[in-house]
Amino acid sequence: MRVSAIPVWRVNARVTRNSRKLVKDTSPDVALVCIDASPDQAVPLIEQLHGQFPEVAVCALSGSNDGERILRVMRAGAQEFLTLPLDTQEITSALRKFANRGDAAN
User: Fold this and answer.
1) Assigned domain for 17 exists
2) Within a 10 A sphere around the Cβ of 38, how many other Cβ atoms?
3) Span 10-31, pLDDT tens digits
4) Cis peptide bond N-terminal to 44, omega within 30
5) Helix residue spans in 1-106 (DSSP H)
6) Is 91 part of a structural domain of the chain?
7) Euclidean distance between CA atoms 6 and 1, whole angstroms
8) CA nearest 32: which of 1, 9, 53, 52?
9) How far apart are the C-alpha atoms of 26 and 61, rounded to whole Å?
10) What phi, psi does 83 have (nearest 5°)?
11) How many domains does the chain have?
């Protein structure tokens, strides 16, 4: 998926090795990590993405708005947390924030 010239990849926490390889091979600006399928694998994946690819903004997605879950993924390195189903305005706002961070870094 490409939104406003920002390369974005959705990675699945259940396939962490493939997700890390996808990020390494494609160098996206944003990785959307859906944490619902496997929260216990999602947090380490977010930590690894944040540690190994600090230039990639990580956005966690979940159908739950549980405060503890949000805190865990934010502490792991996610820059944003969005609740599913995604609202067009929310995702657009988050992607704009990521784009602005990238512009400020350049």
Assistant:
1) yes
2) 15
3) 555 555 667 777 778 888 888 8
4) no
5) 16-26, 39-52, 67-76, 88-105
6) yes
7) 9
8) 9
9) 21
10) -90, 135
11) 1
The tokens for 9 are 């990849």
Task: Compute φ and ψ for 43, nearest 5 degrees.
Answer: -65, -50
- The domain containing residue 55 runs over which residues? 2-100
* Count of positions (residues) in the chain: 106
For 91-96, the CB contacts below 8 A with 24+ separation are 91/3, 92/3, 94/59, 95/3, 95/4, 95/6, 95/8, 95/30, 96/4
Convert the pLDDT of each residue in 46-77 to its tens digit.
999 999 999 999 999 999 999 999 999 999 99
Residue 42, token pair as written in the block: 């999602």
Structural element, H or E, at residue 33: strand 30-34
User: Which tokens sit at 20?
Assistant: 């890390």
Query: How are beta strands 6-12 and 2-3 bridged, if at all?
Result: antiparallel
